[in-house]
Specification:
Number of domains: 2
Strand content: 5-15%
CATH topology of the largest domain: Rossmann fold
Order of helices and strands: HEHEHEHEHHHHHHHEHHEHE
Helix content: 40-55%
CATH architecture of the largest domain: 3-Layer(aba) Sandwich
Largest sheet: 7 strands, mixed
CATH class of the largest domain: Alpha Beta
Structural class: alpha/beta
Length: 313
């Protein structure tokens, strides 16, 4: 099992680690970004992961960088509180890789991947309701809405109907059975993508509240950044990237202006933005990287910098 960090050179370039700096890796995963940041400069890094397996794997890396790598088992949306407990009130940079860890995908027992038959789980933290709970308990209409909203699955109603019919015969407990149910009612995707991919994505996002976590994490990171500090985010699908793009545009004062239908808003003087966009357009992986690591193909990097005090964008 291997972990290849996506857009690694581009992440380091955008984050620009410096000696004595204090940074946070909100999604430690396999430790690829963390190792690169700590190797790039003699700095301190607080690494978060909600998955206890990831934190356990990080122990070896912590030994390589004694006193510099601090592993925290927590969601990155909670980084403000978790760092405050450790006396950290400001950061020189934050990196968030919003993709699912290769270790999670490649472990059949975690139930994240279509490639393996395993328990229908998908819980990053190994606690709380699982994907099997959703599939077997949600009403048909709610299940269809979930697949449409979080998976952008056009055949959501057809798939939900098939799932409800199948679970009436026997509980759906494995990834293999769920995929088989979806395949029976879905034609092969012309793109070559497995026709169950979008449904699996929707369930995973809902199980882990991934979109809510992104919103909380972005807000926490922005609050923690010191003047000159940088936020670097790598997203992997449109729902994630849409949130990141909108957040950064608003933070840099490039969001939609006041509505002409709201006179009160038009009369208020807008506050000068405290952040500047480092990536007017998303940074994409090269064809060489995609060839070497197919999981990079949908990655998009966006970055933001906290402006020095008294300087407007």
């Amino acid at each position: 099992m291997t972990h290849v960090p996506v857009l690694l050179a581009e992440v380091l370039d955008a984050l620009s680690p410096r000696a004595g700096g204090v940074y946070a890796d909100g999604t430690f995963g396999g430790g690829g970004y963390a190792a690169a940041i700590l190797s790039a400069a003699p700095c301190t890094l607080y690494a978060f992961d909600r998955d206890p397996d990831a934190i356990a794997r990080g122990a070896e890396l912590a030994l390589r960088f004694p006193g510099r790598l601090h592993l925290i088992e927590a969601r990155f949306g909670d980084m403000l509180a978790r760092l405050s407990e450790r006396g950290v009130s400001g950061l020189d940079g934050v990196v968030l890789d919003l993709g699912v860890s290769s270790f999670q995908i490649d472990d059949p027992g975690r139930g994240f991947s279509l490639r393996f038959d395993g328990p229908l789980d998908m819980r990053m933290e190994k606690r709380g309701p699982s994907a099997a709970d959703l599939v077997n308990r949600l009403p048909e209409r709610e299940l269809a809405d979930l697949l449409w909203t979080l998976g952008e699955e056009r055949a959501s109603r057809r798939i939900a109907r098939a799932i409800v019919a199948a679970r009436a015969e026997a509980e759906i407990a494995t990834t293999g059975r769920l995929a088989q149910i979806i395949h029976q009612v879905m034609p092969r995707d012309p793109s070559g993508q497995d026709s169950a991919t979008r449904s699996f994505q929707a369930l995973r996002i809902r199980v882990n509240d991934e979109l809510g976590e992104i919103e909380r994490g972005l807000d926490a990171a922005a609050r923690l950044l010191s003047p000159g500090g940088r936020l670097v985010v790598v997203a992997f699908h449109s729902l994630e990237d849409r949130i990141v793009k909108r957040f950064m545009a608003d933070a840099a004062g490039r969001g939609p202006g006041a509505s002409r239908h709201d006179p009160a808003a038009l009369s208020r003087r807008p506050e000068p933005p405290r952040f500047a966009l480092l990536t007017p357009r998303a940074v994409l992986p090269t064809m060489d990287e995609i060839a070497a690591n197919p999981r990079a193909r949908s990655a998009k990097l966006r970055a933001l910098a906290r402006l020095p005090e008294g300087i407007a964008a």
